[in-house]
Input
Amino acid sequence: MDNRIEVLILQHPLEAHEAKNSVALLALGLTRVRLEIGERFDAQALSDGLGPGARLLYPQTPMPSTSPQAVENTKFRLPAEAGAVSRLVVLDATWRKSLKMLHLNPALMALPRLALQDLPPPRYRAMRRARRADQLSTLEAVCTALAQLEQDETRYQPMLDGFERFIARWQARAAR
Output
């Protein structure tokens, strides 16, 4: 799929070898996607590669009140800032590991955040546990964000349909 907004996925090393890895499908399905595997990234390289249009796809989390982003982050909601977004930065990790990645990489912590709204029902719960009912897989979150940012709710539906088939095959294998 020809996504207009570039996607940078920072994947925790433990996720890279996970059989239920939805990022592998994203990497195959999107034309503008870059995958970096690690927990800590070179600060200068990360900062240089992000640019002013980069947004972190991540829910709001408490931040120190002295941080300039503590106030600014509340302004970014989908799709209100769609025109300004040129790169979507996504962490692919468990929630605990993603928080650790944020703290280990101050350049990520400083990024304005985009928090998804109007979430579709998660498809991934059949394969993995989630702490909350509204948690999505990385593939679902990226497709939802891109659809909202690009204001085209059907554009990424074929990728989501393929993901549903992937889940169905996984469930059939697990049932044997």
